[in-house]
């Protein structure tokens, strides 16, 4: 009998067509359900690649301690993958992150250190750096780590191409570390330069967990502006409203970053007469139940 591990179920997530939130003759809106990964988000892909490739290169070995700053989903994915791959994980994250995320990371055995909410992700990154130099922990650095987009070049992009039978015309992704959009763009543009890659960023002062507009000095090194055809800003209210609609009308329970991604994808879909638009559903909604989004 051939058995599988939890790692074998990372990727190959469903691609479903929107039934209610968008209807237009000649245009399809397809949603890639990354919440179906074992850890519940698109970040499982990058987490597995970053740790497993570091082990292959002998940058780390089993029993070593890793540190990473995260706003949530990456931390959950890293906590899961670290234990499966035999390393220890320390997570730094802003203290205003939802309690579901913190508890899930700890359930997988990670040590979670909460940092000042007012300092945001930048503060969590700075604290991770301190631990790297003070404790000698290995920092994965998802923002600069090429294994992050590589995961999507090797898995997410090919899956979208396969499941659309090469008919995808537009790809839309919320932008966080930018690993998803960069890696998928690399693959899809390699198939056809005509495929349009669109990123969703929050408007000024909008707070949408999982996506952000980076200050120049903190811009991820993996980000490649030339790989993205268009960046659209999305408001907090429209991301929130679309998140609620996804659950109530499509039966897709996800977080606000997915709402932002889909709201942006619908703008693109409404602007074309023919095409196949694919949007990323980043994670599951159950890790946001302590927030007010579904009240």
From TrEMBL:
A Pfam family this chain is assigned to: PALP
Residue numbers binding pyridoxal 5'-phosphate: 73, 176-180, 257
Modified residues (N6-(pyridoxal phosphate)lysine): 43
Alphabetical UniProt keywords: Amino-acid biosynthesis, Cysteine biosynthesis, Pyridoxal phosphate, Transferase
EC top class, as a word: transferase
InterPro entries for the chain: Cys_synth (IPR005856), Cys_Synth/Cystath_Beta-Synth (IPR050214), CysM (IPR005858), P-phosphate_BS (IPR001216), TrpB-like_PALP (IPR001926), TrpB-like_PALP_sf (IPR036052)
Gene Ontology process terms (BP): cysteine biosynthetic process from serine
GO molecular function, one term: cysteine synthase activity
Catalyzed reaction equations: O-acetyl-L-serine + hydrogen sulfide = L-cysteine + acetate
Cofactor: pyridoxal 5'-phosphate
PROSITE patterns listed in its UniProt record: CYS_SYNTHASE
Superkingdom to which the source organism belongs: Bacteria
Domain Tryptophan synthase beta chain-like PALP stretches: 8-283
Alphabetized SUPFAM superfamilies for the sequence: Tryptophan synthase beta subunit-like PLP-dependent enzymes
Pathway listed: Amino-acid biosynthesis; L-cysteine biosynthesis; L-cysteine from L-serine: step 2/2
EC number(s) from the headed UniProt entry: 2.5.1.47
Protein family per UniProt: Belongs to the cysteine synthase/cystathionine beta-synthase family.
This protein's name: Cysteine synthase
